[in-house]
Specification:
The protein has about 575 residues and is mainly beta. The chain is built from 3 helices and 40 strands. The strands form 10 sheets. Strands 5, 6, 10, 11, 12, 32, 33, 34, 35, 36, 37 and 38 form a 12-stranded antiparallel beta sheet that branches. It has a 6-stranded antiparallel beta sheet with strand order 21-22-23-26-27-28, with no helix packed on it. Strands 14-15-16-17-18 form a 5-stranded antiparallel beta sheet, with no helix packed on it.
Amino acid sequence: MGFNTALSGIKASADYLSVTGNNIANADTTGFKKSRIEFDDLYNTSVLGAGSGNSIGSGVSVSKVSQEFSAGNISYTDNNLDLAVDGSGFFVLDSGIAQSYTRAGNFKLDENGFLVTNNGSNVLGFNAVDGVVGGNLEDLKVPTDRIPPEPTTAMELKVNLNSENDDVPAFIRADFDPLNPDTYNFTQTQGVVDGNGQSHIVTYYYSKSELPNTYKVHATVDGNLTDETGASFLGETFATFNSAEGGTDYNGDGVAEEPFALLYLGATEPGEAEIAAATKTPLAVAGTLGGVAIASALAPEEVREPTAVAREVFDPLSPETYNYGNTRTVFDSLGEPHTMGYYFIKQGENNTYELRITLDGKESYVDPFTGEDTRFLEKNTTVSFDPAGNLLGAYRGLPPFGVPQPITLEIMGLDPTNRIQITPLDLKGSTQFALNNTDSFEQNGFSAGELQGVSFDTDGFLMANYTNQQTATLGQIALATFDSADGLMPSGHTSWLASKGSGPADIGRPNTGTFGKIQGGALEESNVDLTSELVALIEAQRNYQANSKTLETENTVTQTIINLR
């Protein structure tokens, strides 16, 4: 029996060496799990039951070679298709006959766009249709088709307009002083003769008021603001002029008013009714100097126009003609990019801005149905804020030229291939704070795009990146867990098969429940500890030598017995 005991020990040590050698050989194998040999002692038993208390053992046997499924270190690579499971779970593979399971995520794309392992097994997951991930477990595929263009059909603009922005010319807050040029914008003079035949100079001063294109008018006679009685030569008077663009018929006579034309001249601030009525009261100067009455009148047609100080015609290439502007890219239905510009022009002092829209540098287009020149954004569209700087809304109509009416901000003809399309522009969240003019812009259009690359996120979603800066969800990789991973059967290529001992696979999605997260561009290294394995080699060698010595001793004893004859 001593020979059998020694031989069992030698065989067990040889198996120990084999297991250790296999671990060392796979120290650099991605996703490899080291094996551990487990031994049982052997005792003879009789038919009638267990041996006596003085039974001598019969050696050793290998009871099991188990695998340790502890996680290996994660190393990062430059390949987006390299995957590692950070936590519990195995990748699910279609090996042809049955599903297999692996921790080795060094995947590739085959000629048909399927995600496969190095030995050709398909990686299983949940493919997406139109960005929606399905629930059927199937071969995970990366579609290589280009994505078609999408026109811009909605836009969001969140802008902050500096509360310190000024109208042009700026409202003059200081009290009028003829000796202080900062209290008026421009002047004009008129000669007048009093009752004694003496000549006097009447000077009219125009100071910008709070209303757009409106000025408060003052007058002096020979430099005097008041006459001998202390009364002003000219009572409170306002003059409102047309903008530099003109082109609008305010009084309904069928003729558009000329640029900078006088629209109103009167004793009160004008409203829409006064502008429409073309109220124009001559500037009447009256008073006494040296006991002599002085009277003068300046006809409306003689009033000087503010051409030297008023804002020039809007020009997107001239920043002096607006307070803030920016350009962004939008797309038509063919995927062609176009440059849309948006420009804000402060109008008066009531926290109101005129909004102008351009496309490819132009403010209008020819309507293909009417042949008329049509603005992308209707004229006199304004944006207003409350005193706290919060957006009130968009309006059509600019006081005093019109009554503001709330509107939904819509851009016409933005798509040259489909001029009837109306594109909403949402200004929600816009403000007027004492900060620099800034904005953020979003739109939903894009050009056609070719597949540029794919990657996986921590939830295992397969994301595609296209040349048009768009991304799309193509699918989601599947993971599997088991009641007892120790019961899995190795099947080669660093994969395992389910068995009765492991229980059936529980298949689910990464980063949910007990399933681990996915690390894209990374691989799980072998969990072999070379230092421990080298120590195990020494132990196996020592055991082998010791069992060989037992065999040698048994042989010597046996030979001695034989020699007794």
